[in-house]
């Protein structure tokens, strides 16, 4: 069954969000109203991500027109992607259409709002192309409401979704069935190597395991395992370390629940280069990442220093420009770092002087960096913590992760219920994107922290407020 050809009208915010959106509508045509070109022109100045994207869209449009020849644009321009542009979907074979005549006076919804001019051009387009479905694609909810009032089908731009339903996101930990050992009784092999216990089992069709996924069997036979290796129809499982016992502390910190224990196992494993931690406020993401980083930077000296960065998106009103160096400007954003360092530098027995000396020593090994200046950098043997990563777009996330040089470990953490960036949702956040894309890689791990460990007051507030 062949799908009927449609014309998709792209709003400015879609192109400024994803410049490659032009080439992601397969065999369908794409229509650009004149008002969208005006808004792209107005938005191209500046150094923000949106401004860079606006300039990139203009370059794409220019390349397409030059390849076609600018004499006759009546029939549209072929939407063949430029060389060097790698797209996940099949190559586009649709056409790019421009608004070639002004909107008739009767079809305007007033001339003030850009949205109204875009709507007028859509109604004109529909009249000029009877029988062809015309769909508006916009990330602006209000424009989609206006379009619905005018009986124009409108959709959100969903091509950049990591997955359809956030509840389907990989959690990193799975409960095993109660009869797990009985199921594998005939084909189970176990051995001990370098003080660690391993099991080799045959994979079941419904397992759906990934490398470094954590598995647990609750109850009397409680056991916590990690998928150490997947090899065809066999899986090698390893019993994880127990960081809840006082003999096994990380920088004086113990895991308080199962998920925190799994997180410590992922953070302390030198074979894992990329760790994502999801969890609501108070689940211990920053504390775990800092404790593991200090233990491996100061004690083991596996890493040279800790670099901490975060997306600087205000929750309330902005407080204006901040004075000082890059580090000083970032300090107000790093309250989480100072709060957690207080917990980790429990040196009360040495008095105020001892506490101050410890803080100075740690501060010399912890660098605070702004995300704006990450391009072109390479981090060698660094422990990089990216806080509030839910506010990053997939493109920004890629820019950050590709900074990693040899011996560097990156920890991305955040709470996708607290997204403050416009046009980002739970399913399009860069953090969700990273969790979904990295789950198949043997050197990455993910864990969703579920239980708040801040205080009974914080736990109750998160439930009832």
UniProtKB/TrEMBL annotation:
Q: Which controlled-vocabulary keywords does the entry list?
A: ATP-binding, Nucleotide-binding
Q: Where is the PIN domain?
A: 6-145
Output the SUPFAM superfamilies linked to this UniProt entry: P-loop containing nucleoside triphosphate hydrolases (SSF52540), PIN domain-like (SSF88723)
Q: Which is one GO molecular function term here?
A: ATP binding
InterPro entries xref list: P-loop_NTPase, PhoH, PhoH2-like, PIN-like_dom_sf, PIN_dom
> Pfam families under this entry?
PhoH (PF02562), PIN_4 (PF13638)
Q: Which GO terms describe its cellular component?
A: cytosol
Can you tell me which family this protein belongs to? In the N-terminal section; belongs to the PINc/VapC protein family. Belongs to the PhoH family.
Name of the protein in its database record? Phosphate starvation protein PhoH
Which organism is this protein's natural source? Arenimonas oryziterrae DSM 21050 = YC6267
């Amino acid at each position: 069954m062949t799908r009927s050809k449609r014309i998709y009208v792209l709003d400015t915010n879609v192109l400024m969000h994803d410049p490659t959106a032009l080439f992601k509508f397969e065999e369908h045509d794409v229509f650009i109203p004149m008002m969208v070109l005006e808004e792209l022109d107005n938005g191209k100045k500046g150094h923000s991500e949106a401004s860079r994207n606006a300039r990139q869209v203009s370059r794409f449009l220019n390349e397409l027109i030059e390849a076609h020849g600018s004499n006759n644009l009546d029939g549209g321009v072929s939407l063949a992607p430029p060389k060097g542009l790698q797209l996940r979907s099949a190559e586009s074979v649709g056409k790019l259409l421009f608004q070639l005549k002004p909107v008739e006076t009767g079809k305007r919804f007033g001339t003030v709002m850009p949205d109204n001019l875009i709507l007028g051009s859509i109604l004109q387009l529909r009249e000029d192309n009877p029988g062809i479905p015309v769909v508006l694609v916009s990330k602006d909810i209000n424009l989609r409401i206006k379009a619905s009032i005018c009986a124009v089908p409108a959709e959100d731009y969903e091509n950049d979704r990591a997955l359809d339903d956030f509840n389907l996101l990989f959690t990193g930990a799975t409960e095993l069935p109660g009869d797990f050992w009985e199921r594998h009784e005939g084909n189970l092999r176990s051995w001990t190597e370098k003080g660690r216990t391993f099991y080799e089992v045959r994979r079941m069709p419904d397992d759906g395991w990934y490398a470094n996924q954590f598995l647990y069997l609750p109850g009397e036979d409680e056991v916590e395992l990690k998928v150490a290796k997947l090899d065809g129809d066999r899986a090698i499982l390893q019993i994880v370390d127990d960081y809840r016992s006082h003999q096994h502390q990380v920088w004086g910190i113990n895991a308080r629940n199962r998920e925190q224990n799994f997180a410590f196992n992922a953070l302390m494993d030198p074979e894992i280069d990329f760790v994502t931690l999801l969890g609501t406020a108070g689940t211990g993401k920053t504390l775990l990442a800092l404790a593991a980083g200090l233990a491996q930077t100061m004690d083991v000296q596996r890493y040279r220093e800790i670099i901490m960065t975060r997306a600087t998106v205000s929750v309330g009103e902005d407080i204006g420009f901040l004075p000082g160096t890059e580090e000083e400007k970032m300090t107000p954003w790093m309250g989480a770092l100072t709060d957690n360092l207080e917990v980790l530098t429990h040196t009360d027995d040495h008095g105020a002087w001892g506490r101050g000396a410890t803080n100075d020593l740690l501060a010399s090994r912890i660098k605070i960096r702004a995300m704006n200046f990450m391009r072109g950098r390479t981090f060698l043997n660094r422990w990089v913590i990216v806080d509030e990563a839910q506010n990053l777009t997939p493109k920004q996330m890629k820019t950050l992760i590709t900074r990693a040089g040899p011996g560097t470990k990156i920890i991305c953490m955040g709470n996708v219920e607290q997204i403050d960036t416009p046009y980002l949702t739970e399913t399009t956040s860069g953090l969700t994107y990273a969790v979904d894309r990295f789950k198949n890689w043997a050197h990455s791990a993910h864990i969703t922290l579920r239980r708040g460990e801040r205080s009974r007051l914080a736990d109750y507030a998160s439930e009832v407020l």
